[in-house]
Amino acid sequence: MNENPMLPYLGKLVEVRDLAAEIKLFRVEMLNGGGEAFRNSQPGQFAFVSAFGLGEAPFGIANACGRGPAVDFAVARLGSVTTGLHELGEGDVVGVRGPMGNWFPMDKFKGKNLIVLGGGIGGAPLRPVIQHVLDHRSDYGRLTILWAARRPDLLVFTEEYDEWRAAADTDLHLTVDVPDEKWDHNVGLITQLLEKAAPATENAVTITCGPPVMIYHTTRMLEKMGFPPIWNYVTLEARMHCGLGKCGRCNLGEKLVCVDGPVFNMVEVGDLLETYL
Amino acid sequence: MSKPNSARKRWLISQAELETWLDGLAQAQTLIAPRDISGVVLYHPVAKSDEIAAGFTRPVLSVKEVFFPPTERLLSIEKTGAEIHLNETLPEGQTTVFGVRPCDARGARLLDAVFLDTAPADPYYARRRENTTLIGLACKEMGPTCFCTSVGGAPDDPTGVDVMLYPAEGGYLAEAISDKGHALLADAGWPESVVGGAAFSGGEHFPVPEKGKWPEHFNNDYWMKMSERCLSCRACTYVCPTCRCFAVRDEVLGPGEFERIRCWDACTGENYRRVAGGHKPRAEKGERLRNRFFCKFYYYPEQYGLGSASACTGCGRCIEVCPAGVDITEVLMNLEKPA
């Protein structure tokens, strides 16, 4: 971060592409010192991206630093800032503040089987986890990816599924709530997919991100299936405005998502998740 | 932050001497003091000491806006084609605030815990705080909604100011609290006093639930019941010396010219937690009001290392402004009642 933590770095958009319906991927080449700041960003960290004149909003960093130096963000067009970002193209300049927050303890996960559960655009902050595991494949056990969306056209990173499937000891399971005529995978909620895939609980760590209601029900299901809360990780989002533990907007009980998170295990936030809904 | 002055020298000054001194300060820098603006006493810039309100309990708004203005520019942004130029707009200028009540000095210290003491420090707040001298004024009596003595304060508590003034026979006893305050008073050329001020005695005192007890009150039905009268108007957070929630957004000034500002916001507001896409946690008034009380007595102390102290100064302003009669002292006493 800059010495003034409210001052963004500038970044040039080097790639903008459609990721899913109303979701774009922005690949940012950091300028004026930002490259150094993001060189060692960790899976799970986030940053604020500015559409100057409209404001800034927080987004999970969507690629592992090893896949850099450019930094990826997945942005769904929902409000004014994200609509402003969607109107930008390659060569345009955005602001980036970060990297911020804690991260998935990938070192602690070494030797464990990873179960990654992503719902919709919640898959974006999980992509660096998947990339990190694929790039350090022998450090980790089996990788099971459960990927869900409301509709097939809302699934993110579809063009990377072949890479994930081709990796050693890696499974990808897909589900949508509402299929189209071409859909030939599972239909239903991610909790149903989880029951069906029934990954082994032994030596496992689970990592979940998605809409609040998905995180809530998925983590409860995981616990019911016997996954210990201490190894059930989530990454949460809130519409924070500073990312520095000051603005007060992202509290989950006494925890601040921006500085105490966004990554938590369920021992830390299990009791507080109801207030997140 | 100003260092405490161990010697704590005292000077006896008359009302006339005080006025001359304040007039001098007002010429050298911005002087902010309680001022009657159309019947409302506010901490406000004054050009001369005769503009200072007499006989006030405490200003209607706290002193927080001196360090943390309701709206503040963070950056100016210029856009020419694809080029972006950013300019930090850090505040300039020296300010002295006269007439700071002990509850407000405490409020400033509590905001320091957020904006200065918890890394990273906020450069805008830090600059204002560093460039501001606080002259405290002890209260002769507690106002009708005041309860500072129940939350660890006192009407004559000098903690957190640079100079403390105690009303005394024929004028004031001025005490140097910080080194900065000592330098200011030593230069004034008044006779030193050997007598100390009489300590304030009395003041209502009621038990406030200890920090560790708060989690057990979380699922209490009381919150939903007591919040029925809340209008979500956010007045309580506006007047609170320690409510510090803010929003950051960009404003358009002209073609290619923008500013990034931050402005006060309130966790009791209906759309405070709403996110793009429509998801709105804490949709119920009771959940929001509970959050505010928990913030004062549990979250804020936990988040910013206050130990057993709370983030409530007992100034009573929220009681005074609530149009629906939500009374923080009533809430605290109800929580202490056996179930």
Describe this structure in words.
The complex is a heterodimer of chains A (277) and B (339). Chain A is an alpha/beta fold. Chain A has two domains: 9-100, Translation factors (Elongation Factor Tu (Ef-tu), domain 3), CATH 2.40.30.10; 113-235, Rossmann fold (3-Layer(aba) Sandwich), CATH 3.40.50.80. In chain A, 20% of the residues lie in helices and 31% in strands. In chain A, strands 10-9-8-7-11-12-15 form a seven-stranded mixed sheet, with helices on both faces. A six-stranded antiparallel sheet of chain A has the order 4-3-6-1-2-5. In chain A, a hairpin with a 2-residue loop joins strand 1 (9-20) and strand 2 (23-30). The two termini of chain A are 31 Å apart. The model of chain A has no long low-confidence stretch (mean pLDDT 96). With 339 residues, chain B is an alpha+beta fold. Chain B has one domain (10-336). Helix content of chain B is 27%, strand content 23%. Chain B is built from ten helices and twelve strands. Chain B has an eight-stranded mixed sheet. In chain B, a hairpin with a 2-residue loop joins strand 11 and strand 12. Chain B is globular. Chain A binds chain B through residues 1, 3-8, 10, 50, 52-57, 76, 78-79, 81-82, 91-93, 95, 211-212, 238-239, 241-242, 244-249, 251, 253-254, 256, 275-277, and chain B through 74-75, 77, 79, 82-84, 86, 88, 90, 114-115, 118, 120, 122-124, 244-250, 252, 258, 260, 262, 265, 267, 272-277, 279, 281-282, 287, 291, 294-295, 298-299, 302-303.
